[in-house]
Structures are given as C-alpha cells and as structure tokens.
Amino acid sequence: MNQSAHHSADLLKELRIDRSAPPPPASGRGLWIGLGVTATVLVLGIAGWALFGRDKALEVKTAPVVATGSGGGSASVLDATGYVVARRMATVSAKITGKVREVLIEEGQQVAAGQIMATLDPIDADAQRTLAASQLSAARSQIGSVQAQLHEAEANATRLSGLVRQQLVSKAQYDQAIAQRDALRAQLATTQRNAEVAGGQLRIAEHGVDNTVVRAPFAGVVIAKAAQPGEIVSPLSAGGGFTRTGIGTIVDMESLEVEVDVAEAYIGRVQPKMPVEAVLNAYPDWRIPAEVIAIIPTADRGKATVKVRIALMQRDNRIVPDMGVRVSFLEQHKPGAAAQQAAKPVVLVPAAALLKDGEQDIVFVLDDERAQRRAVRVGSNVGDNRQVLAGVVAGDDVILDPPAELKDGERVRVAADK
C-alpha cells in the first residue's frame, strides 16, 4: 500500500508545470506571418502619407514674368483690336465677255505686274482683226486708184488751160476738166479719211485680241482663283449665276496695314504718327512696331467708334490680310530727367495672375513649392498682360487664377501639362 502511494506521488510531480523553463521555439510559419503584417502596416503608412500628406497640396498653374526690353521708353495708353487689311487688292477680270481657254495662276503664287494670269478664246477677236485689216487694205487700194485718176485730171486741166487761152478749145471743155479735177481731189480726201477710219478699226480689233489676255495690274500674291478653263467670264454680272466676273484676286503685300475701331470716348488719346505696338492673334509672342497713319474723320453711329489706320513698320510673310490683331497705342516719353527710367525694361504679368485685396493688387509667386503672397504696383494694359512697376521681377513664376482658399506660404504643386 505504501509503495502504491509513493508511486502516485511521483506521477503528480511529473505533471506539474515548470514555470522557470524557457518557452519553446516558434515555428517558421509564425515568423513569416509576423513579417507580412509588419510590411503591410508600413506600406499602408506610406500610402496614407502620400494621399493625405504630400498630395494635400493645391494644384496650380503658373506662368513666368517677362520683360519686354527697354520698350523705347514707351507705355501703353490705349489698347484696341482690329484686322490686317490690304490697301491694294483687286479681283482681276477680262475687259470682254468670253470663254476661258487657260488659267495660269494658283493660290499663293507670286505674280509680277503685267504677268499673264489667263487667256480667253480669241477666235472672234482674231476674225474681227482680220476683217479690219482687209478693210484697211481696200481703203488704201482705193486711195491709189483715185490718186491716179486725179493725176490724169490735173494734167488734162493744165493742157486745156493753155489751149483755151489760144481759143483752140471752148471754155466749156476747160470748165468741165476743172470740175472733174476738183471732184477727184474731194474723192481722194474722202478715201484717205476712210483709210484712217479703217486703220482705227484695226487698232480697236487688235485691242480686242489683246483683251483676251488677262494680265496682273500690279505685283502681288494670288489669294483666290475664281475661274476654270471652259467657263464664261464677263466684266458684268450675267445674273444667271453661271458667268464668272473675275479670274482671280491678288493682293499687294507691301500695302498691308491695320485698321482698328477706337471708342469715341478714347479717340482723343490717339494722334497721327503715334507709335503703336501690334500683336497678331496667330503669333502672340511677336510684337510688331507700327505707327498711326491717320484717324478717319467719321464715326460709326451704331458702334460709337472711329476707325484708325495703322502702318506696320515690319514686313513679313506671316502677315496676311484679315488676320486679327491687338494693338497698343504707346506714349513716347520725352528725353530728359526721366531718360534713365524710360530705358528700364517693361515687366509684364498675365492679367489672370492678379488679385484684389481691398485696394491692393497682389500676386502669388511660386517659391520652393510654396505660394508666396506679394503686393504689386500695376501699370497699363498690354494685351492680355499688365505692366508691373514693382513687386515682381522677370523670371518669377506667378500662379494663374489663384484659388480662393490659397494662403500665403501654403504648399502647392504645379499641374502637369496635358
């Protein structure tokens, strides 16, 4: 019995937990699970920072501040819009009605003064010239016949003059010879006049032949081709819609100028010979020097505007008729004490970058990915830009259309160009 009790006590000791022993080693699977959870937490942390930290910056668009150079010491006093026009432009037509035989021009072609643009069918004109030449030849032949008869009549009158004095012929015979001589003289004069008329008709017929050839009235560029071989052209409208009134249109590119409409309220700022800066809508970065030619002395009652002619001081193939153009009328600074100030470059900022803070004009400048608020002093308008007298310098990047919630020093990021 004692042995049995002792054996049971030993078994209970073996079942007791030994808390001082080290924990058993973890399995490999559990270790990989722990590392995966840690990596997931790190990735989620980085993504959260990207979404809620860095990308929290406002997305903006920027534009550089530019300087136009010295600008000749000029500032804009008035801006206007208009179009390029040609003072010398013509739709060339034939002087006669006829069928087109060939057209020798194409759009964009340079033509010289007198160059043949087209020819008409010359059959009728050639026939008229041939008839006029025959009539002239017949008139000249008739002159020769009358002259021979007159020569004989004059000799007969001279012979009878001596015989009548000797009373060898009657006075009646002598008078008849004189009358015949005078009649032939009159007939000769008439024949000579008829020959002159025939010569004039031949010259007209030759002009008719020449009129079948259409020539350029001046040097220029063809901007429109209106007729094709086989069509009927006429200097007058036929009314049926099937007769062309022109061969083509040419423009003298040396005569291009700008016409703008200036509101009546501001026309007093414009003077003849006033310097102007023109910018074509097609080439907004190209500033063309120009000058006021004249102010047309009449107003448009409906639009309350006055037309102003402006001469372009620079010729270029890029300037073509009917192009839209923006012009700035410049006020030339007088030399003297302000000469150094006039020589300073004109700094321009896009009008879209300007904001009003009460009475103060401000812009936001991009500085190290942050929006920096700056107060500026603005001048006159120059197209879509504003002249800035103080506050920014050329090379600064200003934020366009700043959002209302944008604050000074706030982090921003520039939108990618699409």
TrEMBL record:
Annotated ranges, domain CusB-like beta-barrel: 258-331
Molecular function terms, GO-annotated: efflux transmembrane transporter activity
User: Which residues fall in a coiled-coil region?
Assistant: 136-194
Q: Where is the Multidrug resistance protein MdtA-like barrel-sandwich hybrid domain?
A: 88-234
Bilayer-spanning residue ranges: 31-52
Q: What do the Gene Ontology cellular component annotations say?
A: efflux pump complex
Domain of life assignment: Bacteria
Q: Which keywords label this protein?
A: Coiled coil, Membrane, Transmembrane, Transmembrane helix
Cited InterPro entries: Beta-barrel_RND_2, MdtA-like_BSH, RND_pump_MFP, YknX-like_C
- Mention any Pfam family matching this sequence: YknX_C
Recorded hits in SUPFAM superfamilies, A to Z, give: HlyD-like secretion proteins
Q: Please state every residue range assigned to the domain named YknX-like C-terminal permuted SH3-like.
A: 347-414
Q: Report the family membership.
A: Belongs to the membrane fusion protein (MFP) (TC 8.A.1) family.
Give the protein name, as stated in the record. Answer: Efflux RND transporter periplasmic adaptor subunit
* Organism the protein comes from: Montanilutibacter psychrotolerans
